[in-house]
Amino acid sequence: MIKIAGIDIGNDSVKVVVDGSPRPILIPSIVSPGYDRHILQEEDSPLKALDVQIRSPKLKKSNQRYFVGLLAMEDQDNSELEETDNKATSDQSLVVALTALAYAAIAGQSHPVGGGLEEVEYIIGTGLPVRSYVAFHRAFEERLVGEHEVAFLSTPELHGRTVRVIIRRAVVSVEGAAALYHLATNDQLQVKNEELHGGCIGICEIGALTTDFPVVKRMNIDNQFSTGEQFGLATYLDSIIREVEDRFGYRFPSRTKLIGRIRNREFTVQRVGEGKADIRPIVDVYFGRAAQKLVDLIRKRWKKYPDIECFYVLGGGASALRSYIVEAAGDMRLRFEEDSELLNVHGYLKLAKSKAGQMPVAQD
Ligand SMILES: Nc1ncnc2c1ncn2[C@@H]1O[C@H](COP(=O)(O)OP(=O)(O)OP(=O)(O)O)[C@@H](O)[C@H]1O
Ligand SMILES: [Mg+2]
Questions:
Q1: Which CB contacts under 8 angstroms, 24+ apart, belong to 268-272?
Q2: Strand-pair partners of 313
Q3: Beta carbon of 13 within 6 Å of any ligand 1 atom
Q4: Is 290 in the pocket of ligand 1 (CB under 6 A)?
Q5: Which of 47, 185, 250, 274 sits between 20 and 30 A of 173, alpha carbons compared?
Q6: Report field, pTM of the whole predicted structure over 0.90
Q7: What is the pLDDT of residues 121-158, one digit of tens each?
Q8: Distance 57 CA to ligand 2 centre (A)
Q9: 78 CB under 6 A from ligand 1?
Q10: How far is it, in rounded angstroms, from Cα 74 to Cα 77?
């Protein structure tokens, strides 16, 4: 049977929702080279130790072993994505995406009797930033569609299992616009919010490395006014990491570690040679700056295009910056949503479902 899934291949994290299963899967977009690790105590969940070997004709380097997500987070040699990476062409993005799809297919299911290769077929919905969509959506689709193989190595509960991930179709849409589609429709894809569905809506979707400003009018993306910027929350997180290191000699091993602290409101770091330091003032400075810049951009866009009826600020960056943005916005009213980092992926799933319903899937 073919599964339909939405997958948001984010620079910060890859999110997957499979049609019919309620909970999204989230894997940080970090990988490091894999090796035979010493396991003193096995981790208590597979997501904590994704150790995979991936074969795919679409990877520049096939058949490599990787630690993915949380397992790579503490590794010296880990890599997070940079501004210059393009998720449509990056091996790293594809590695995390395939791992997530393989995991989503077998998580919580016991190994079939007899073992051997397991197979899953997908129709997926996914997306690209406004600015790379035009030039890269075909290449992105071609990279995803096809047959890939993910073998789980030392991963708890899954070791020894190999999944052939067959992607039959990939429906590529635009970040931010998909989030709005999700907000405007219910699970049966019927309109649940007339104002959003029929109106002219501005969106500012703040990701890790890109911020998208699609304008959506009656659910169509406005070609002239939609734009994007090549910065996101990660740009500011990197500055905070640098300044904390310069001032206090404390180095966060990854952005994910830093944002984890900020989310839990743990602003104290331990200094070498005893003593603690408060990083809150540094966070306030950079987040305040980010918020000001975003509010200025939103105001400028709204002035340029006064047909916009309301402006949604979405993406994980909106959750992180919300209070700072509200303050910087003054009396300009902006809309926020809960769990806004997950809106795109839900939108991608709905778009995949709607396309899958319309056209027969090519079979070979
Ligand atoms: N609930 C939250 N609270 C605070 N910060 C968050 C939250 N969710 C995500 N973030 C942070 O916001 C930033 C953007 O997250 P998001 O998941 O939207 O990025 P992404 O989709 O992976 O990146 P991109 O859109 O650039 O590909 C990240 O740095 C992330 O750590
Ligand atoms: Mg994103």
A1: 269/244
A2: 204
A3: yes
A4: no
A5: 47
A6: yes
A7: 999 999 999 999 999 999 999 999 999 999 999 999 99
A8: 26
A9: no
A10: 9
